[in-house]
Every structure is written in structure tokens, then in C-alpha cells.
């Protein structure tokens, strides 16, 4: 494994650890909030529901990021990290530094976005 891939692996491992801690912490906060909300009136509960939905959406995004990180770590282990899954070309280091879990080169990503 080259130095760049090792650097990206460490960055991905650190990001994964931070996300797992965040998701676990937020899960505990939800449990506490649920216990506290049992005596609230309907307007408070509606506000809590909106906050819960927002937090749920954020957690879903974090879970998606975690899945992407796990995929990148798997590709590192398989020796396929930094290879575009669509065209098979190398993903530029600059793109990987910006988005370590990237699976597409800039060209393929742009093509996919244009196609919808």
C-alpha cells in the first residue's frame, strides 16, 4: 500500500470513528427525549416530532456517509481504492483528498449528474 492510500485509510478510519460516536450519542439522546416527552402537551409534542424528523434525516445522511466510508475501507483492503467504479480509471488524488470515499472520477460523476 502506498503512502497516499495509507493516509486516506487513516483519514477514513478517523472519520468512521467520529461518525459512530455521533450516531451512538444521538441515539442515546433520542431515548432520553422520549422519556421526557411523555408529559408534554400536543403543541410541544408536534415541535418535538419536527425536531425528531430533522434529526432522523441527519442520522440517515450520517449512516449513508458511514456506509460510503466502509466501502472505501473495503476497497483499500482489496487493493481497488482510487479506481473509478464506472470507467476503471484512477480517481485523481485531489478528488480523493476532498472526498476520501469517492467511487467515481470527476468525469463519470459529472456524466451521472447530467443524466439525472
Automatic annotation (TrEMBL):
InterPro entries: DnaK_N, Znf_DskA_TraR. GO terms for molecular function: zinc ion binding. Residues 79-113 form the Zinc finger DksA/TraR C4-type domain. Keywords: Metal-binding, Zinc, Zinc-finger. A zinc finger (dksA C4-type) spans 84-108. This is TraR/DksA C4-type zinc finger protein. It comes from Candidatus Ornithospirochaeta avicola. Gene3D superfamilies: DksA, coiled-coil domain. Pfam families: zf-dskA_traR. It comes from the Bacteria.
